[in-house]
Specification:
Elements: H1 2-8, E1 10-15, H2 53-68, H3 94-112, H4 125-150, H5 158-189, H6 194-257, E2 263-264, E3 267-268, H7 273-285, H8 290-307, H9 309-312, E4 326-331, E5 337-342, H10 349-356, H11 359-377, E6 390-395, H12 405-421, E7 426-432, H13 438-445, H14 451-454, E8 457-459, H15 465-472, E9 498-502, E10 506-514, E11 518-526, E12 531-539, E13 547-555, E14 563-569, E15 573-581, E16 587-597
Region (Disordered): 118-151, 216-237
Organism: Salix koriyanagi
Subcellular location: Cytoplasm; Membrane
Amino acid sequence: MAEVAQNMSQEQVVVVTDVPQAETIAPAPPTMPVVEKEMPVPVPETEEEPMKPKQVEEAVVETEVLKASGGDDEKTPQLVSFKEESTKVADLLESEKKALREFKQLVQEALNKHEFSALTTTPPAPAKEEEKNDAVVESEEEKKPAQEEETPVVIEDKENVEPQVVAEKEVAETEVLVNHEKVAAAAASDATAETAVDDDGAKTVEAIEETIVAVSSSVASQDETSAQATKEPEGETKAISALDEEAKEVKSETMEVTPEEVSIWGIPLLADDRSDVILLKFLRARDFKVKDAFTMLKNTIRWRKEVGIDELLEQDLGCDDLGKAVFMHGLDKDGHPVCYNVFGEFQNKELYKNSFSNEEKRQRFLRWRIQFLERSIRKLDFSPGGVSTIVQVNDLKNSPGPAKKELRQATRQALQLLQDNYPEFLAKQIFINVPWWYLTVNRMISPFLTQRTRSKFVFAGPSKSAETLTRYIAAEQIPVKYGGLSKDGEFGTADAVTEITVKPSAKHTVEIPVTETCLLTWEMRVMGWDVHYGAEFVPSSEDSYTVIIQKARKVAATEEPVISNSFRVGEPGKVVLTIDNTTSKKKKFLYRLKTKPCSD
C-alpha cells in the first residue's frame, strides 16, 4: 500500500528564478515595519455585500458544531468583505460633499462663538455671571440701609417724592378749611353789628384768599422740584444702558474676529485638509446626518476635556505588564497598522488582579487602553488618501471567558468609549481562536455596536486562524505565534515571504539557483507541519557531487514553528528544498531567503 500511495503521489517542482545575488544584496535591515510614502489603496477581496450579523453568527455556530462532532476539517466562517471609503473630498457623492460643507459651517460658527471651550460638566459660564450679578445686587442692597442711616438722601426717587407731595397738599388744604370755619363762626357771633361786620368781613375774606394763593404756589414749586429730581436718575440709567450695549457689541465683534483653536488627535479643526478627514469620520459614523455628527463631535471634545487626553498622553500609569496583552505589530496588506489584543494573557492571576480586581484598577486599565490608542492614532496619516484607520486582531485563545465579570465589564466599557469617541478608526476587526462561549459574549456586545461596525468583523476558529490572518496580513508582518515569520533575527519585515500551497499526498520542490560564491540563508515553515522536509545542493558541474544540507526527516506539529538553515556556496549550482506532504490535507508552505557575499 505504501508503494501504491507513493506512486500515486504528485510531485511539484518550483524553480526560483529571481534569487538575489550576493554582490547586490545589502545587509539585512532591522526588523521594523516599513511604511511607504504612498499606501496602497484598499481593494476588497470580493464584491459581495457584507454579511449581516445573523449570518456571521450562523457561520460560527456551524464551525463549532463540526468541531464538537469530532470532524477533522473545520469549515471556515464566511469572511466579511468591507470596502473602506475614500478620504478624498473629490471622491465623495454630491450629497456627501454638501453634508461636509454644512458640517464645516457649523464647526466654524462654534469656533467663532467659542462654544467648544465652554463644553464642561459644570454649569455654563453665563449662569455663573448671573449668579455673580445677583450677589452684587444683594450686597448693594445690604449696604444701602446703612448708607441711609449715615447720610441723608440727597436725591429721592419718583416713588418716594410723590407720596410726600400729596401729603403736603392735604395738610395745606386742611389748614385752609379750619381757618374758613373759624371765620364763619366769628361772623355768626357778630351778626348784630352789620356795619362793623362788613368792614371786618371784607378784610377776613381777603386774608383767606391770600392764604390759599400762598399754599397753592408752595405746592406747585414742590411739584416742579420733585419732577426735576425724578428726571435726573432716569437720564443716568439710560446713559449706563447705552454704555452696556456698546460694550456688548465690542465684545461680540472681538469674539468673531478671533475664533478659538481646537485640536483633536493632534489635528486643528478647519486648519487644513486633514481636518476634512477627521470630520468625515464623524459624518460616516452618523450616516451623514449633519446635526447628529455635530452633536457627536461636541460630545467627544467634552469627553476628551473631562478625561484630560493631552495630560494622559504624558502620564506613566505603571502598566508595563500589559505590554503582552495589547501591542502593535506590523502592517496589513493595505498598509494599516495592526493592533493585537491577547485575552489569554489575563489567565495570569496576578495580571488579572492588578487590572480588574476593583473599580479603581479597572479605571486605570481603561485609561491605559485609551492612552495606548491615542498614541497609536497620533502615528496615522490624516492627509486625504492616507492611512487613518487600524486593524485589530483579537486572540480569544485561553481567554478567561464570560465567567470573569470584571473583565466583561471592562470590555463593555472600552467598547462603548471606542464607539462614542473614536468613530471610524477600525478598518477591520478580526477575531481568531474563537471558542464556543464567544457566541454568548457576541450577543451581549452586539447591541452596543452599530451595523456599520459589525460589518467590519471577521471570525475564525482555532484551525483557521492562521489562514484567515494571511488573507489580510502578509506572512512577514505576522508574528510567528500567529502563523507568520515575523520575529527578531536576521530577517525583517522588508524581506518578503513566498507562500505555496502543497496539495494532499504531494511532493513540492523549490529550486534556488546560485551562480556566485556566497552564503545562502533561508527560513521556512509549513502550517501544522506533519510533513517530511529535506534540503540539498546540486552543483552545475557533472564532476561534482550533490551535498546533503538537511537529510529528509518528518517534522511534527509540536516542533519549532520556524526552521532556519544556511549553506556556503562555493560553485555554481542550485539549492533544492523538498516538502513531502503525505497527509490527506493541503498544507501552506512559507519561505524566504537571502544571500551574503563571502570570501574564498
